[in-house]
Amino acid sequence: MFLYTKDAPKGDLRKIYGETLVELGKKDPKLCVVDGDLSTSTKTAVFGKEFPERFFNVGIDEQNLIGVASGLAYDKDRVVFASSFSIFLTGRPWEVIRQHIGYNELPVKLVATHAGITVGPDGASHQMNEDIAIMRAIPNMRVVVPADSNILKKMLYKAYETPGPFYIRLSREKFPIVYPEDVEFEIGGGFLLREGRDVTIVAVGLMVSHALDTATILEEKYGISAEVIDPVSVKPIDVNLLAESAKKTSKVVTVEEHSIIGGLGEAVASALAESYPVPIKRIGIPDTYGESGTAGELLRKFELMPDQLAERIYNWLKTF
Amino acid sequence: MKASVEELKEIARQVRIETIKAIYLARSGHPGGSLSATDILVTLYFGGYVNVDPSNPYKPDRDRFVLSKGHAAPALYAVLALKGFFEKEKLYTLRKLGSPLQGHVSRKHTPGVEASTGSLGQGLSIALGMALKAKVDQMDYKVYCLMSDGELQEGMSWEAAMTAKHFKPKGLIALIDNNNIQLDDFVTKVNSGIYPIEDKFQACGWHTITVDGHDFKQLIEAFEEALQISREKPVAIRAMTIKGKGVSFMENTPAWHGKAPNREKFVIAMKDLGVSEAEIEEFLNRYDN
């Protein structure tokens, strides 16, 4: 099912993104890519080097980036990938995304890199902790968060093959490998990565590997049996998988490198409130901004490291 | 088939009549900017500049027309109806629940509409994307974008203008409906910083042409020039227009940016546009009872 071990090798999400774009570009001569002066960071530059005539680096103008991507895609006769850092790709041009890509269901796949606090030293201006919240709110938009580079690759193919818009959230950091290369990914379908009895931990992105480590600590240190779910897709979310697990454990914790407002936590809470209500603890970035520091330091500051997560979950379970 | 100047004048009169009828029946809408843009739209669609086929509205090699000032929807709808994209009757469902004619243009609803707009300042960027697509696909269709003067206050308009210079698309033509009125007041009073328009586009690498937006001969000359020059660089045509053109009490009046006439004002508007009392009576009896 999954490969993850505590010492799992790490996979570079952005590298895989660039390479997959080239693969898709070779397969599909119509495919276009748009970036906004961050192509060497987002790795769309790799596509640009291979296919300069269908790569548009529009510079530092994200509203126009979305406008150009939409203009290329309005006839729905090709797939367009559009990239920048999460804060700039989703925050700056949000309403342009809504007006064109969302409303008209354009085949534009928004792939943002550098999401969350693990952007690190760049500080609060670059740490996008609200992207899932604002993208989820757009009708027709699917929101997916890969836990590693293997599932990312499948996700990129799936987004390419599926009509309509996608938001794919990547981070700057390399993530430990969780899934095998041949993992099969369906939109709206999550993975039960570890079975347990006492509590369900739902996590996306980097927090999936943290949640698996947390479950080990919970078992070894506190004798708590934790189930771990990676829904992969925050919208649509796998309600059945969540409800089945909630029936079993009666307690659900969500863990995300995103604000607890509007993110995975609220998506899970809404899904369970309407299917199988149980107590839920949302763990993520509280209603605040980040600051400069290394990714590791910031994860510790916001108590998102596995040992901290285990203690927080243990303390929460004690209150029942 | 290109209409003559005399024919264009008559078509424009019909478009204005249908625009005001639709807005009157909808009890809301934007007459001022629809009327100022009418002659530009009519020249584009009936003067042979936007080559489209109503029976195949999204043929890959068609010319594209993006209405960036999406609130001028009623005028575009009237043009598309007269062009044969849908029945004229549909115009009287404007803004009503379930209508194919949304308050601001929607590609999801209306055949012939290229981009869903209404949020200002976005159209030029969309048009640029469409023009770049022509380059990728090695096609030579033209992309026209009709903008308001007020929406030049949106930064995104200039992002697109700058970027067009860099990527050198062929056949990109921007049209600015310069009626000098926005919702609150005259543009010169609200934020005059959009002027001088020509200098700004030129600084962004565009060729500019300035015309009287209600003079068909001048519009035709401008479009002919634009067709030639847009092979080399993007062209912006600043069309000097009168908001509310053709309806006496609406002309050059900020108050008529975004409201429908009442019955009494509607009758005056129809008379201004040369509709006989009998025709007005018949229309009201049929559609407004």
Describe the structure.
The complex is a heterodimer of chains A (320) and B (289). Chain A has two domains: 167 residues, Thiamin diphosphate (ThDP)-binding fold, Pyr/PP domains (Rossmann fold), CATH 3.40.50; 128 residues, 3-Layer(aba) Sandwich (Rossmann fold), CATH 3.40.50. Chain A has 13 helices and 14 strands. Chain A is globular. Chain B has one domain: 3-Layer(aba) Sandwich (Rossmann fold), CATH 3.40.50.970. In chain B, strand 4, helix 8 and strand 5 form a beta-alpha-beta unit. In chain B, helix 2 packs parallel to helix 3 and helix 4 packs parallel to helix 5. The termini of chain B are far apart. Chains A and B meet through helix 4 and helix 6 of A and helix 4 and helix 5 of B.
Write the layout of secondary structure elements.
The complex is a heterodimer of chains A (320) and B (289).
Chain A: E1 10-11, H1 13-27, E2 32-35, H2 39-42, H3 44-50, E3 55-57, H4 62-73, E4 80-85, H5 86-91, H6 94-102, E5 108-113, H7 131-136, E6 142-144, H8 149-161, E7 166-169, E8 175-176, E9 191-194, E10 199-203, H9 206-222, E11 226-230, E12 233-235, H10 239-249, E13 252-259, H11 264-273, E14 280-285, H12 295-301, H13 306-318
Parallel strand pairs in A: 2-3, 2-4, 4-5, 5-7, 6-7, 10-11, 10-13, 13-14
Antiparallel strand pairs in A: 1-8, 6-12, 9-11
Chain B: H1 5-26, H2 31-46, E1 64-67, H3 73-83, H4 123-136, E2 143-148, H5 155-167, E3 172-178, H6 187-190, H7 197-203, E4 207-212, H8 216-229, E5 235-240, H9 263-272, H10 277-287
Parallel strand pairs in B: 1-2, 2-3, 3-5, 4-5
Helix pairs in contact in B: 1-2, 1-3, 1-9, 2-3, 2-8, 4-5
